[in-house]
Amino acid sequence: MYIENINAPADVKKLNEEQLAVLATEIREALLTKLSRHGGHFGPNFGMVEATIALHYVFESPKDKLVFDVSHQTYPHKMLTGRKDAFLYEERYDDVSGYSNPKESEHDHFTVGHTSTSISLACGLAKARDLKGEDGNVIAIIGDGSLSGGEALEGLDFAAELHGNLIIVVNDNDMSIAENHGGLYGNLKLLRETDGKAACNLFRAMGLEYLFVGAGNNIHDLIAGFQQVKDSKAPVVVHICTQKGKGYAPAQAHKERWHFSGPFDIATGKPLYDFGEEDYSSVTAEYLLQQMKKDQKIVAITSATPTVLGFTEDKRKQAGKQFVDVGIAEETAVALASGIAAGGGKPVYGVYSTFIQRAFDQLSQDLCINGNPATIVTFGASVYGMNDITHLGIYDIPMMANIPNLVYMAPTTKEEYLAMLAWSIGQTDHPVAIRVPGGQMVSEGKTVTKDFGQLNTYEVTQTGGRIAIIGLGTFYALGQGAAECIEQKTGIRSTVINPYYITGLDENLLQELKKEHDIVVTLEDGILDGGFGEKIARFYGASAVKVLNFGLKKEFLDRYDTDEILKKNHLTVEQVAEDILKLL
Amino acid sequence: MYIENINAPADVKKLNEEQLAVLATEIREALLTKLSRHGGHFGPNFGMVEATIALHYVFESPKDKLVFDVSHQTYPHKMLTGRKDAFLYEERYDDVSGYSNPKESEHDHFTVGHTSTSISLACGLAKARDLKGEDGNVIAIIGDGSLSGGEALEGLDFAAELHGNLIIVVNDNDMSIAENHGGLYGNLKLLRETDGKAACNLFRAMGLEYLFVGAGNNIHDLIAGFQQVKDSKAPVVVHICTQKGKGYAPAQAHKERWHFSGPFDIATGKPLYDFGEEDYSSVTAEYLLQQMKKDQKIVAITSATPTVLGFTEDKRKQAGKQFVDVGIAEETAVALASGIAAGGGKPVYGVYSTFIQRAFDQLSQDLCINGNPATIVTFGASVYGMNDITHLGIYDIPMMANIPNLVYMAPTTKEEYLAMLAWSIGQTDHPVAIRVPGGQMVSEGKTVTKDFGQLNTYEVTQTGGRIAIIGLGTFYALGQGAAECIEQKTGIRSTVINPYYITGLDENLLQELKKEHDIVVTLEDGILDGGFGEKIARFYGASAVKVLNFGLKKEFLDRYDTDEILKKNHLTVEQVAEDILKLL
Q1: Which pick of A126, A302, B124, B565 has the fewest CB atoms within 10 Å?
Q2: CB pair distance less than 8 Å for B157 and A153
Q3: Phi then psi dihedrals of residue A53, to 5 deg
């Protein structure tokens, strides 16, 4: 096998085109085996095999710098830059992350996991090169799906200002995670259909030179194209047309399903594990579809991740014009929601905690200053969420809960979540966000009767004395557990509180607690800095009440073991109970 | 005068074209008088007089909905929608805000002050209209300068997805606040030069229909153009070419200087008040220009507000390629800075507190996860900063200081600021942000010898007992004042501390304070929620030390009187001292 002898890009250059084609086959075989056992991003990597080989054949990495957008298509790049073993040998599968990673290799320049950043980052590398009077190519590699993001479009616009070498490889596979949405995709189609010759050209309109390579899975054509732009003195776009999932029939046929896959059976493509039971995503879609039938003004919004809201292809069809995918464009998603609410519609924007970060200013300016009653549902906002450093869901409380006018809520069960969603859709007074709990969905079957319009009213779920435990969202159960543990150990019955609201204090209740309690404890499923617990600590700062805040340390974690991290942060039932008792 | 009889858009429709031209002259005269006495946005409003008249002549506001981007060009719109008195009569000048404002009029749909939001917001209004089965036009009005912002480009791309009425008026005056930067401006130029006939067309590439109106200050042509697109069934761009500052010679000649103006002498255009003394902006440019000469790797970055860094036109020329204006594109500015730092350059990005909000995810993902040593300087981050609801600088601490890996610093004087800047540019370990103090620049002439590389080491500037006062940044002086006041009243000498760092605690010092202090006080020039003081409150939560946090309430303020707001938030020297003594 050729792949076994590839230890650096220099080894790629030793092969002839025929051998490179064999290498491509070997890479796909290794990927298929690894992903069938281990899971990972499938379609993006299968589509980029030839282009990655051609890039390393033509350019001189690391002197020439490759910046992969979102970087979930970097598996072939890793295989060609000294990290092949992590794809060839099962015991080494976890040696590498799923994204580009400067800690792994000098051929990676940024830790990247969000889309649409490559062009602007590459502009920075190019500018540094020019300031230092050096030479070399800087190459951003960006998928068509990522182009709709604001940062990518800003970068496309800014690139022309560099007046120096910058190569932007647009990997056009005519797909985002789901289908593409946005007017620019019509232009990409036009360019594909005219072999890049159409006069109306988005990239040229942005001031960039342009080269079309139709056969984006043909190594020969790719090499010729990259050689043509190598050492270009001006920013240039190379538009290559690839096939997502290329080389594995099920992935070519069902591109959305195969964007990312868990372990599967190679022969049939069927997943090895069935996550068939209902979860917060599926109950969201079910609930919204029901309500949409009764109310034409309800509209669900996604920014290119429709299934986070449970809207699989069939459900999107059912919703019709009451479902909007803005493409990868979180800023527009929030502004759109605000505009719809201002116009009397009832928008529900579902988004991962890690991606709502991309719309801070829109939350503040477009939505909250205007006080429009849009609903945002944040998913994966938990230590139990995604655990890659670029996809963590533990920072949204400081980011969102300190924006004035926003009502950010934390349900603890399915029933609370749906009741909050119903209340939020029905009301017209506040922008509302709901933080879907992490971990397994909890359903108690209990009817929730609380009037959520009475903002910042917490609920005492167990009355006790000396100790009051306020458990927010996912960590309410941890608080309950600690209370039980303390009662078993000491007979002291703690007061237990479900606060429901992240954005405000129930000052009456907190005041009242002073009478019979010495210690108030907070627990939150996110970082402590700027979070919920600190507001409680401030409230009691001048009083005799002692406050203990439990939550996560402010740090960037990466591919962590959840139990280990919980333990390290004193977040097991026993640790919480012990820490409280120490203070008593 | 016609303007005196314009109480609603219906009154505009009664005039013929000749009368409308007179109306335009009257509007300019009123604007000139008001702005010469009161100050405000000059160039944008003078350029948009005819277009605004034509819009109200053709469309039926408020049923047809006008959404002005950034909305600092809405003075003529306000004059035509029942708010003329605020421009005609000096005693009523302050009746209206400088931005669109739904609280003022049914003809305003959003409170807007940041750029690049209009298209996405208008998409929301259009979608709501379509969901409700209503009709009517939705019109976004956006300047060419705002087009480079990510949200605007996202919106342009998404608009085609609406498949319904949406009119995007692109007001092309070939300027941002300063000159435009970005490749798309070449395309606008090409379109201007070809009367909109060039085949390569950014807007068509985004899937939009397109109409060119070259004479954007000609009422006749504008009316004809708007009539042509009225009730369009598809999203369409109307590209109008206007002259910024039209009708006042100094403003036409010096567009950057006249984007916004304080009170001035109409005959000469000279400002009535001279703010000639040095400020944090001018010392920044002075310092950076000095350093740039010694080090080619230093580069200053702005996102379309070069003078916030002190880089007036002459200084930009001096800096040459060591000054980069990315245009209105804060996301790209942060990513660029990260990329430059990754490539070994030394970027310094200067930005208003209110605008760095537009790059939260880039701070977190592009910069801080990667730990690249870029420097960000935030200006106007203070209660003493801009006081329009859309431009407040009191939210950046919760936003930035809770991002892992960022070192966010708060100098209290010019000398500390420059020492921090020097340290930050010289080091290669951390992404650093520096929060320039608000209010008058304080200069003590003292040499700062502190090693800022010893992160999170606070400085005790006065040793005392019982009370410790930690005064952050601008509010350090307030802390000092309170300490003096307390000493005068009670003889108790407080410990006074300059913490320097917003992002971390000096745990050793805080621990040490417990011995001789009963009360620890924090003061910060920003909202309390998610801020600096709450971290201190959490630290002492389980101890006997009492903590008092001073700062601003989490709320959106608007056009406030600073003294009044300080008083309301218990932030005068006397109030702080009293509150502390009450607790003693």
Answers
A1: B565
A2: yes
A3: -60, -45
The DSSP string of A340-407 is: HHHTT-EEEEEEEHHHHGGGHHIIIIIIITTT---EEEEES-STTS--SGGG--SSHHHHHTTSTT-E
B561 has a pLDDT exceeding 90: yes
pLDDT for residue B277 = 78
Q: Which CATH number fits domain A459-583: 3.20.20.150, 3.90.950.20, 3.40.50.920, 3.20.20.70?
A: 3.40.50.920
pLDDT band at A9; cut points 50, 70, 90: very high
Find, among B414, B178, B173, the residue nearest to B312 by Cα: B178
Chain-chain contact of B327 with A546 (C-beta, under 8 angstroms)? no
* Percent of chain B's residues with pLDDT above 90: 97
Partner residue opposite B181 with nearest CB, options A109, A161, A329: A161
Cα A165 from Cα A160, distance rounded (Å):
10
* pLDDT for res B480: 98
Mark yes or no for CB contact A540/B541 under 8 Å: yes
Which site among A158, A176, A292 would you substitute to test the B interface, given the most B Cβ atoms closer than 10 Å to its Cβ? A158
Same fold, A3-255 and A459-583: yes
Helix (H) or strand (E) holding B527: strand B517-527
Name the residue facing A201 among B114, B200, B326 (closest C-beta). Answer: B200
**Which CATH superfamily includes the segment(s) B280-435?**
Thiamin diphosphate (ThDP)-binding fold, Pyr/PP domains (3.40.50.970)
Nearest CB to A109 within list B159, B337, B342: B342
The 10s digit of each residue's pLDDT in B172-228 is 999 888 888 999 999 999 999 999 999 999 999 999 999 999 999 999 999 999 999
CA distance B379 to chain A (A): 17
Residue B533 near residue A538, CB atoms below 8 Å: yes
Contacts of B148 in chain A (CB under 8 A): 154, 157-158
Q: Rounded to whole angstroms, what are the CA distances from A544 to A50, A540, A557, B301, B541?
A: 67, 8, 35, 49, 10
Q: Which fold has domain A3-255?
A: Rossmann fold (3.40.50)
**pLDDT at residue B300, as a whole number:** 98
Size of interface A-B (CB pairs under 8 A): 419
Q: Which helix (H) or strand (E) holds A253?
A: helix A249-253
| Alpha carbons B76 and B256: distance in angstroms, whole number | 20
The model's pTM is 0.98
> What's the CA gap between A75 and A41, in Å, rounded?
9
Distance to chain B for A534, nearest Cα, Å: 5
